[in-house]
């Protein structure tokens, strides 16, 4: 079984779509470990604020199968195929880590947003503080401590989810 870390985000009815996305992830991957929920301003375009979090699960699927499942879940919950990268979305699910695999295909792992976006790094550091980034060779807690927190505004928000652990 591989340990996977998953980024989830939404800025269209975010509470509704994140709960629906989590329910679908739970159906396919079983129990989820969840970070707190964070609100952030849109990055890369002018839009309404996003809600973001990170989840951890185990899977026997390979990387391509995991990514395909994420894309199907997104589409099942209103994500338009071929939508612009920097645009509002009902649900965005990205594979951040698959064990300690480093690869370029079928997706780039570890995902670059871990290093560049506070809305990925903070929740990842919350649920996996002692895990070491396979390229940076630093723990996520250390990476978050060193992150320029003035570069992106981010704050924790209340979120109720009855089927996984939340670190509030």
TrEMBL record:
Pfam families (alphabetical): HPPK
Gene Ontology BP term (one): folic acid biosynthetic process
Keyword Nucleotide-binding attributed: yes
Domain 7,8-dihydro-6-hydroxymethylpterin-pyrophosphokinase: 5-129
CDD domains in the cross-refs: HPPK (cd00483)
Gene3D superfamilies: 7,8-Dihydro-6-hydroxymethylpterin-pyrophosphokinase HPPK
EC number: 2.7.6.3
Keywords: ATP-binding, Folate biosynthesis, Kinase, Nucleotide-binding, Transferase
Biological or metabolic pathway of the protein: Cofactor biosynthesis; tetrahydrofolate biosynthesis; 2-amino-4-hydroxy-6-hydroxymethyl-7,8-dihydropteridine diphosphate from 7,8-dihydroneopterin triphosphate: step 4/4
InterPro entries the UniProt entry points to: Hppk, Hppk_sf
Recorded GO MF terms: 2-amino-4-hydroxy-6-hydroxymethyldihydropteridine diphosphokinase activity; ATP binding; kinase activity
NCBIfam families referenced in this protein's UniProt entry, alphabetically: folK
Protein's recorded name: 2-amino-4-hydroxy-6-hydroxymethyldihydropteridine diphosphokinase
Organism: Shewanella bicestrii
